[in-house]
Amino acid sequence: MGRLFLVYNFSMESSWAIWVGMIIGGGVGGYIPVLWGAGYFSFASILFNAIGAIIGIWVVFKLTH
User: Fold this and answer.
1) What is the mean pLDDT of each run of 10 residues along the chain (65 residues)?
2) Number of Cβ atoms within 10 Å of the Cβ of 42
3) Widest CA span of the chain, in angstroms?
4) Which is it for the CA torsion 41, 42, 46, 48, positive or negative?
5) Which one of 3, 13, 49, 60 is at 20 to 30 Å from 39 when CA atoms are compared?
6) 40 lies in some domain
7) Does residue 19 lie in a domain region?
8) Could you tell me which of 1, 4, 24, 18 has the C-alpha nearest to residue 65?
9) Which pTM was predicted?
């Protein structure tokens, strides 16, 4: 029972970090196409936003586990 609580508690504490990684990664990824002249709501920006969010989640997951 103690181990179950420890795993549950750890996952709840790291979930906010995963959200932060997703938001920061998505913001950075979405802004990269703007640097070469594309609009912030262009297809490239939305695609890079999704890729950046996934990379941000992956980085935070690797750091917290």
Assistant:
1) 49 78 95 91 94 95 85
2) 14
3) 55
4) negative
5) 60
6) yes
7) yes
8) 18
9) 0.76
